What we know:
three-stranded antiparallel β-sheet
Amino acid sequence: MRQAPTAAEELLWRSLRNRKLAGIRFRRQHPLGQFIVDFYCVEANLAVEVDGPIHTGHEAQDQARDDDLATTG
Length: 73
């Protein structure tokens, strides 16, 4: 997915890369348990998923992913 990000992912990555957001380091397409999250900050234990048209019709899967990630902290 790094080679073909959605427009929203690309726009957000431009704002996050190279510690542009408050000096915080984010990783892109980071494995987290059984999932690969769009962006992840180790220091803040923060996962960011950019949902857009590609997720249409996958709402139940997305909710299951969100619930699982939330229970793991």
